[in-house]
Amino acid sequence: MLKPFRMMNPTTVSEAVKELEREGAAAKIYAGGAELVLLLRHGLVQASALVNIKRIQDLGRISREGKNVRIGATVTHRQLETDPLIRAELPLLAYAESHVGNIRVRGQGTLGGNLCFADPHADPGTALSVYETTVKIAGKNGERELPVHEFLLGMYETALRPEEVLTGVEVAPLPDGWRWSYQRVERFYRPTVNVAAVGQVRQGKFEEVRLAVGCGGPKAERLWELEKKVAGLAVEEARRLVVDSKRYLVDQLDPVDDLLGSADYKSYITGVLLGRALEQLADGRGGSNG
Amino acid sequence: MAEELEELKTLQTTKIALRINDKPWSGEVPVEEVLLDFLRYRVGLTGTKRSCESEVCGACTVLVDGKPTSSCSYLAFEAAGKSVTTVEGLAQGEALDPLQEAFIRNVGAQCGYCTPGQLMTARALLLVNPSPTYEEIQDWMKGNICRCGCYPAIATSILEAAKIYRERK
Description:
Distance between the termini of chain A: 50 Å
Shape of chain A: globular
CATH architecture of the largest domain in chain B: Roll
Distance between the termini of chain B: 41 Å
Order of helices and strands of chain B: EEHEEEHHHH
Mean pLDDT of chain B: 95
Strand content of chain B: 15-25%
CATH class of the largest domain in chain B: Alpha Beta
CATH topology of the largest domain in chain A: Uridine Diphospho-n-acetylenolpyruvylglucosamine Reductase, domain 3
Shape of chain B: globular
Helix content of chain B: 25-40%
Helix content of chain A: 25-40%
Oligomer: heterodimer
Largest sheet of chain B: 5 strands, mixed
CATH class of the largest domain in chain A: Alpha Beta
Low-confidence stretches of chain A: none
CATH superfamily of the largest domain in chain B: Beta-grasp domain
Strand order of the largest sheet of chain B: 2-1-5-3-4
Strand order of the largest sheet of chain A: 4-5-10-6-7
Low-confidence stretches of chain B: none
């Protein structure tokens, strides 16, 4: 049984913000419930009121925004996995989403809920980190935007303030000709480590790459410095560089021991997955974008 | 009605109308009531099983508008206006569903506790993919745990039932 609460059902974002302001810290946003209902049941979150944002129609949409794709906060993982626009324009995201939880979790859980819960063992944050992703937030003083890496702050920690609503994300598709690879190791139901890699390869050399690692530490991390060093290298050199970068990876990821593996294991697997991802980019076995 | 439902004083109820196994139902439910408790205690359909209560094991799976759903973590009021199918809704009168027959034929269960959830997740698969491959079955069913380890027999049952559904059309 869940402890009783009241349920607010706003139909606009500004109403939702007003409800949050009125209810204060005792109110939580309800988007899909896939995480929230569990937390309420186990007493990890206390809420005397839930603000249901699923009736705000705009938040349930996937749409083009110029060249970019806008994804509303209450779009489910299953929608992202199967939507033709997402599959065509953001194929790495669609692929990563197809691995979230199980078919029931994907049908109920939402992108906004997943990002706001900020569980370190998740797929969407890692996938969105290699795209140019802007997180859209509404609050009492209007809207603000943050790049995804400034939104995800740590373990179960985001830049969202109590009276704010994450309304969606805007994602830029990869440039033409870029390839992608998404690697993950899963034990139990959540990923132990995942790696997203995108980039352009010319004449056997990486021209430009973006690399992100998730689940190793408290949050998904872009490997900005490693990306710069990989640019210009052939695949074998890049793989060697990754092996030699163990120190850098540990510093960047800040891995911790948990039920899914020891910190040592996670940093080792991160290196393996990065190597595989770079290999896939180089030989085109991962997906490509045009 | 079970005593469990009356332990905590609810703060808010809402009136909902939905279809359960093709029959209409309407009434008041507390907003915090999950679909599993609603079905088992309020409606009296105990075929849907409680197990992990964490969306991991799949024992409580029902269909909401044809989609497989963890009834343990889905608030009942969300089903308003929708159609819910439980394991009790699979058979047509005395005639078992092809999935149920195939599970029996292949011994797709030992203790049987996970079976209602297995059947419903499998039903949902065949609604969207009438001709799944063995690999597609494995991928779709991976969120339904069988402690007795009947996975191969379950997959075989689904392949057989899929064939029977197709032949009936």
